């Protein structure tokens, strides 16, 4: 099967029909929910309701998990059709049509955490000549870093294409100030294997950041 | 988009680094949508809210007046927190636009969704 990010840019690939198909497919929905729960778990939040960012929120499948767990969220997605489906489904989060590769614009320290499910590989796409992957990742990670509370985490489940892509992503994130790295759940299962990039926006005084354990 | 998010949002046009907050709201249509009251969340968010900006925004949109300053007993002041809940989490901008005071970029809002896409010369 060819990778969707090789077929067309996300705002084209997730047109009206794909956006609905994606959301109505119960298998996709349950996998997305499971990964959103895992990402939320990896955020390692303290008790209480938090203000969270969902990058590439799509039709709100992952945002609904954040709601269920009592958090307030803001989501952005480059596909207006995905955002339309999210709006029609009346999710609680605020929704933006936004290209994360152009940066995120929130005041310093706004978010207590950030999750992203099945999106990061899209950011590495060079679908238009202007979309240089490295520059886009750089813009994204640097503005994300600024919008996170000190020592907050950002956790991205994604489908890396190859080791070079993983290296590029981690290199750029590190240069933007993040600590952390890659976590692979169920590495020996072809089906269940999942990649999570777990990033820390700086360190809390007197505490060392430790990468959580993989499953 | 709820007002809590407007209060935390700034312009993300590249090199628009000063005078990029708050985005000025124009021709707004506001809708109140009921939300679960969560005082703990409000108390957690209070330090992040730019209070003078919130006061101005509420005034501009013709919302019920909110106190000019955060009361000292905010955490236990039920009436204050209820009012804050309504302003921050139940007040949605459904139509209109937001304009960056620094670079002048116009972010349109349709059916509650701001379009934050930038042009190629802005990235
Ligand atoms: Zn600007």
Secondary structure layout:
The complex is a heterodimer of chains A (215) and B (123).
Chain A: H1 4-7, H2 10-13, H3 16-24, H4 26-43, E1 51-55, H5 61-68, E2 72-77, H6 80-88, E3 94-97, E4 111-117, H7 120-123, H8 133-147, E5 148-158, H9 163-175, E6 179-185, E7 194-200
Parallel strand pairs in A: 1-2, 1-4, 2-3, 4-5
Antiparallel strand pairs in A: 5-7, 6-7
Chain B: H1 3-8, E1 24-32, H2 39-45, H3 51-60, H4 78-90, E2 91-99, E3 106-110, E4 113-114
Antiparallel strand pairs in B: 1-2, 2-3, 3-4
Bound molecules: zinc ion.
The site of zinc ion (ZN) has 8 residues of chain B, from loops.
Q: How would you describe this structure to a colleague?
A:
The complex is a heterodimer of chains A (about 220) and B (about 120). With about 220 residues, chain A is an alpha/beta fold. Helices cover about 40% and strands about 20% of the residues of chain A. Chain A has nine helices and seven strands. A seven-stranded mixed sheet of chain A has the order 3-2-1-4-5-7-6, sandwiched between helices. The mean pLDDT of chain A is about 90. With about 120 residues, chain B is of the alpha+beta class. Chain B has a single domain, classed as N-terminal domain of TfIIb. Chain B contains four helices and four strands. A four-stranded antiparallel sheet of chain B has the order 1-2-3-4. The model of chain B has no long low-confidence stretch (mean pLDDT about 95). Classes of the chains: A alpha/beta (about 220), B alpha+beta (about 120). The site of zinc ion has 8 residues of chain B, from loops. Zinc ion (ZN) binds near residues 100 and 103 of chain B. Chain B: Belongs to the TRM112 family. Chain B: Interacts with TRM9. Chain B: It comes from Phycomyces blakesleeanus (strain ATCC 8743b / DSM 1359 / FGSC 10004 / NBRC 33097 / NRRL 1555).
């Amino acid at each position: 099967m060819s990778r969707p990010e090789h077929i067309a840019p996300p705002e084209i690939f997730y047109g009206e029909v794909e956006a609905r198909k994606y959301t109505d497919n119960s298998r996709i929905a349950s996998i997305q929910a499971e990964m959103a729960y895992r990402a939320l778990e990896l955020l390692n939040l303290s008790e209480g309701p938090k203000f969270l960012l969902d990058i590439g929120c799509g039709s709100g499948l992952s945002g609904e998990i954040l709601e269920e767990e009592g958090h307030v969220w803001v989501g952005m997605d480059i596909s207006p059709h995905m955002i339309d489906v999210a709006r029609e489904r009346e999710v609680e989060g605020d929704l933006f049509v936004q290209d994360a590769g152009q940066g995120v614009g929130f005041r310093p320290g706004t978010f207590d955490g950030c999750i992203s499910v099945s999106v990061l590989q899209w950011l590495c796409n060079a679908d238009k000549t202007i979309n240089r992957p490295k520059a886009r990742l750089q813009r994204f990670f640097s503005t994300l870093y600024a919008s996170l509370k000190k020592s907050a985490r950002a956790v991205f489940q994604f489908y890396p294409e190859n080791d070079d892509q993983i290296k590029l992503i981690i290199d750029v994130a590190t240069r933007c100030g993040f600590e952390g790295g890659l976590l692979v759940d169920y590495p020996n299962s072809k089906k269940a294997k999942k990649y999570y990039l777990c990033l820390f926006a700086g360190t809390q005084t007197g505490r060392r950041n430790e990468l959580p354990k993989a499953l | 988009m709820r007002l809590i998010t407007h209060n935390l949002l700034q312009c993300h046009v590249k090199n628009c680094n000063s005078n990029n907050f708050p985005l000025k709201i124009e021709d707004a249509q506001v809708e109140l949508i009921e939300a679960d009251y969560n005082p703990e969340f409000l108390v957690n968010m209070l330090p992040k809210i730019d209070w003078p900006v919130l006061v101005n925004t509420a005034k501009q949109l013709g919302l019920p007046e909110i106190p000019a300053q955060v009361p000292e007993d905010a955490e236990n002041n039920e009436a204050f927190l209820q009012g804050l809940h309504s302003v921050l989490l139940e007040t949605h901008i459904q139509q209109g636009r937001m304009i960056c005071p620094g670079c002048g970029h116009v972010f349109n809002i349709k059916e509650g969704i701001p379009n934050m896409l930038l042009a190629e010369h802005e990235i």
